[in-house]
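Lab meeting, item 3. Inverse folding demo.
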């Protein structure tokens, strides 16, 4: 449904239109009770018949792909349904169901199944392709596995009861992405059965589906962040129901990756040969590369190989071996080479853990839901970075207020520029008139008094010579001052002896240059005095000439005309000065120092002309800048998606979960030089190939000796049925079992290790004390895991860092396990278990040790037991939030570490039944978390007599190690000690 967004009814209408003409293609596919696959113009819908046969459940919708088109070529039905298709939000809304009246609706499943069978076996044949048979079979098995997983999830979620709520309120929670966050008070909180990050939905008052994600669970309160901003008035209130939402994003991303491999579109063209045939290209590691931080020999080997491997490198990173440090060094070196790196893993926490160890100078962009990120990773989220860029754009556009006068709307300074041009033209006209008036006046004086005219010419020539001399001396002084500053700043090169030899000569030269500067300044002063005297003489002679001409009726008007023109010129230049001051001030305020500012006042017409040219250029530049900043400001609020795409495009490192690499539109079409996939030992092959097809080469870091990816018993049941029905060849069934049993990382290990170049083991752990590390090494790593640890002192109860409390000394009625019933099952097939005595003993132990260790955690196999211990410790410690953060199941605690780890086995019975504890990798996860001390609590009688031979042998090995290197003490002794009893 994710593909359809908020418009599923439009798709239903399309099905009605096509089926009205008998033009709706459909296929029937096996699996479970079967499903009907109908093909719209752009989308394919997968429909599941209801138990009553009156309708179909809409499982999921995906875009039509080449994969689906190939299936159509094998065979299809064309559906003709004149009555059309009708949509119901819930099957309970269907009218006329059996038992109430004659059914009005039908799925016609039996009729469709009959006609499908008439097509013959070819319709169910696998898709043909040009791929080698082994590759085609591999991809088909992957596709079946993805679809089976999806079908099981759909059935599980659609069968789950709704989450009834009795109150809803808006929260004040931080809105990292601007979406509505609401808290729902559940009617039956104990039966919610949802977890953080689970997708949910509700139907609002208008009938639209509102999709969201559970971000927090607080007792009876479920906090949901919706995908879009939600008006509180549209949420049914005060009561209503939330439903578990089924998303096909994961399966569609997996199927798209499979399709990419089938079409030969992987960024690594040989990836399918590596996955299926174990083929790796030869290469030489970069032994000259140097990491920033110290690495041990095996870490350096992984580092050197990761920089040069042409296809796939596997790095085994057992607990405490510094894999995160190694990853950070690899990523840093790849970025230094100019590579674009994708950092990914199956969980948000694993991705963020890598980011937190990268140096700050690397340009990292984190893609995904912000509420699922750590605080540090959130600083690199594409949403936060885009907002920061937007703020910087707005800040850069801030001067637009100062530039308002330059815009077309308010062109204030354009008008001042025009005024300046007008006044300069008037001044030029006055200058021309004044020149003509001066010539007429000179001729009149020559006529009336030739001696006075000669004196005036001599005085004018003297004034001109003084001005010319002043100009030349000013240029000489400027040059001399510059040269003096240069020589004073310069220091002679060469050895000290050479410097001493030249020191006296240099001082003499500098003194001589200083004397020259002073002489020039003295000459300028003398010339300026002479100019003043010459100007006074000119002015006095002009006064005489004016008086002489005023007495002559023929020439009396000439002095008055000259004075009028002088006044007009002076007034024009005064107005020019005012305009120039306003323009310079405006440009200085808005642009300095981006544009050079005209600092000196012009003194003649030529300088004024140059000033006007400068002012015109500055005003035009400011107007362009104003328009650009206005555009920036207007678009800044509407370009978030574009900014995000650019941020991702130019990032050194992009970080996202495996599925996020394919489901985020921001990453669409991006190819990476290297994909670095952390915790690959927990990633299934369908998930693993999602990022791998996007990268030219991949570095997988993981540990196949810890939890596998698939722990779903229903999926294992599907594989068992696949084996039992005999419809598939044994080798296909075996490959399916392998894909379910092991991660993609584990399946690649044998062939990668055989090359001697594509598999590296980190073998020096620094987390666990020697006594504990030695057991983990022997039990799970063939003795190859070495330890470097400073050692620890004993705790308040045990002196050894590895200890066991044996509860088999208690009566079976006191120590035995209990099943809490159907309300607290681990999975649909697996019951949950509680061991009250173990829970109480663990609570006492933690209560005593909590002040002794920096941090602690309790790990148990079952969620019901974790809840029981949490209740006891919350009452004892009074901090439910902290208790909740430090109690969990094995499955939820992989990757964590604490000073003190307390592990409770929970199982205690006379049958030797240990349930899913037979997955020995759970034990490895549990015991390898401790930095200082591990205390295990369990019934050794049950554990050492387990019906599963592998588990029983491991327990016997562990008991032998504890007797030699640790402590085993009876529960009665420990309980007395903890309760302070004698």
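The presenter then showed the designed sequence:
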């Amino acid at each position: 449904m994710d593909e359809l967004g908020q418009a599923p009814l439009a798709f239903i209408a399309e099905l009605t239109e096509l089926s009205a003409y008998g033009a709706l293609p459909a296929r029937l596919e096996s699996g479970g009770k079967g499903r009907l696959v109908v093909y719209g113009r752009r989308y394919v819908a997968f429909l599941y018949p209801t138990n009553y046969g009156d309708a179909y459940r809409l499982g999921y919708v995906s875009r039509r792909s080449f994969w689906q088109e190939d299936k159509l070529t094998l065979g299809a039905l064309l559906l003709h349904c004149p009555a059309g298709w009708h949509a119901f939000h819930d099957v309970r809304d269907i009218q006329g169901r059996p038992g109430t009246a004659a059914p009005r609706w039908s799925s016609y499943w039996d009729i469709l199944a009959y006609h499908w069978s008439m097509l013959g076996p070819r319709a169910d044949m696998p898709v043909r392709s040009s791929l080698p048979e082994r590759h085609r079979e591999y991809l088909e098995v992957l596709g079946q596995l993805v679809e089976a997983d999806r079908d099981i999830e759909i059935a599980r979620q659609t069968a789950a009861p709704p989450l009834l709520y009795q109150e809803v309120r808006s929260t004040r929670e931080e809105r990292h992405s601007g979406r509505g966050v609401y808290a729902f008070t559940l009617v039956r909180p104990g039966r919610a059965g949802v977890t953080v990050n689970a997708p949910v939905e509700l139907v609002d008052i208008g009938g639209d589906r509102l999709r969201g994600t559970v971000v927090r669970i607080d007792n009876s309160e479920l906090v949901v962040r919706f995908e879009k901003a939600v008006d509180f008035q549209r949420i049914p209130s005060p009561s209503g129901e939330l439903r578990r939402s089924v998303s096909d994003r994961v399966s569609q991303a997996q199927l798209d990756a499979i399709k990419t491999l089938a079409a030969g579109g992987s960024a690594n063209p040989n990836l399918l040969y590596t996955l299926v045939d174990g083929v790796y290209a030869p290469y030489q590691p970069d032994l000259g590369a140097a990491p920033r931080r110290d690495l041990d020999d095996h870490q350096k080997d992984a580092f050197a190989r990761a920089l040069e491997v042409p296809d796939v490198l596997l790095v085994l990173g057992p607990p405490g071996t510094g894999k995160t440090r190694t990853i950070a060094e690899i990523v840093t070196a790849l970025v230094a080479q100019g590579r674009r790196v994708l950092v990914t893993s199956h969980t948000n926490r694993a991705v963020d853990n890598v980011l937190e160890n990268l140096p700050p100078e690397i340009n990292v962009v984190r893609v995904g839901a912000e509420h699922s990120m750590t605080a540090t990773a959130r600083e690199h989220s594409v949403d936060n970075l885009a907002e920061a860029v937007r703020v910087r754009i707005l800040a850069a556009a801030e001067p637009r207020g100062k530039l308002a006068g330059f815009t077309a709307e308010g062109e204030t300074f354009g008008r001042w520029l025009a005024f300046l041009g007008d006044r300069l033209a008037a001044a030029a006209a006055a200058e021309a008139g004044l020149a003509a008036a001066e010539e007429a006046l000179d001729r009149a004086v020559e006529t009336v008094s030739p001696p006075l005219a000669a004196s005036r010419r001599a005085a004018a020539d003297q004034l001109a010579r003084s001005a010319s001399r002043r100009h030349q001396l000013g240029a000489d002084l400027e040059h001399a001052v510059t040269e003096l500053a240069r020589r004073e700043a310069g220091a002679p090169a060469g050895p000290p002896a050479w410097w001493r030899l030249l020191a006296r000569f240099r001082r003499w030269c500098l003194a001589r240059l200083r004397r020259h500067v002073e002489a020039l300044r003295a000459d300028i002063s003398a010339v300026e005095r002479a100019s003043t005297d010459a100007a006074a003489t000119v002015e006095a002679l002009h006064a005489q000439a004016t008086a002489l001409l005023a007495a002559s009726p023929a020439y009396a008007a000439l002095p008055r005309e000259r004075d009028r023109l002088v006044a007009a010129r002076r007034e024009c230049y005064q107005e020019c000065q005012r305009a120039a001051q306003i323009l310079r001030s405006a440009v200085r305020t808005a642009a300095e120092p981006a544009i050079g500012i005209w600092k000196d006042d012009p003194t003649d017409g030529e300088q004024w002309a140059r000033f006007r040219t400068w002012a015109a250029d500055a005003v035009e530049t400011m107007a362009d800048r104003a328009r650009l900043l206005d555009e920036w400001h207007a678009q800044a609020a509407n370009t978030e998606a574009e900014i995000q795409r650019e941020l991702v495009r130019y990032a050194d490192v992009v970080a996202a979960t495996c599925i996020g690499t394919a489901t985020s539109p921001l990453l669409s079409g991006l190819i990476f030089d290297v994909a670095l996939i952390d915790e690959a030992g927990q990633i299934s092959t369908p998930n693993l190939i999602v990022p791998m097809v996007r990268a030219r080469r991949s570095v997988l870091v993981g540990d196949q000796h810890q939890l596998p990816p698939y722990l779903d018993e229903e999926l294992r049941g599907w594989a068992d049925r696949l084996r039992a029905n005999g419809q598939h060849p044994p080798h296909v069934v075996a490959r399916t079992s392998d894909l379910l049993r092991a991660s993609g990382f584990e399946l690649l290990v044998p062939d990668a290790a055989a090359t001697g170049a594509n598999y590296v083991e980190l073998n020096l752990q620094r987390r666990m004390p020697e006594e504990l590390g030695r057991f983990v090494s022997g039990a799970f790593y063939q003795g190859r895991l070495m330890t470097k640890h400073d050692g620890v002192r004993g705790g308040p109860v045990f002196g050894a860092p590895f200890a066991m409390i044996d509860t088999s000394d208690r009566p079976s009625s006191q120590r035995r396990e209990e099943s809490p019933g159907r309300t607290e099952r681990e999975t649909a097939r697996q019951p949950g278990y509680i061991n009250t005595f173990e829970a109480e003993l663990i609570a006492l132990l933690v209560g005593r040790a909590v002040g002794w260790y920096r941090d602690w955690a309790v790990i148990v196999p079952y969620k019901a037991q974790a809840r029981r211990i949490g209740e006891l410790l919350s009452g004892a410690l009074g901090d439910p939030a902290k208790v909740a953060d430090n109690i969990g199941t094995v499955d939820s605690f992989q990757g964590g570490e604490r000073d003190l780890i307390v592990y409770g086995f929970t199982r205690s019975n006379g049958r030797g039944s240990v349930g899913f504890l037979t997955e020995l990798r759970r034990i490895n996860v549990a015991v390898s978390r401790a930095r200082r001390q591990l205390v295990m609590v369990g019934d050794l009688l049950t554990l050492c007599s387990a019906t599963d031979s592998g588990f029983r042998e491991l327990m016997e090995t562990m008991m032998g190690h504890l007797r030699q290197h640790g402590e085993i003490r009876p529960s009665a002794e420990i309980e007395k000690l903890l309760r302070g009893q004698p």
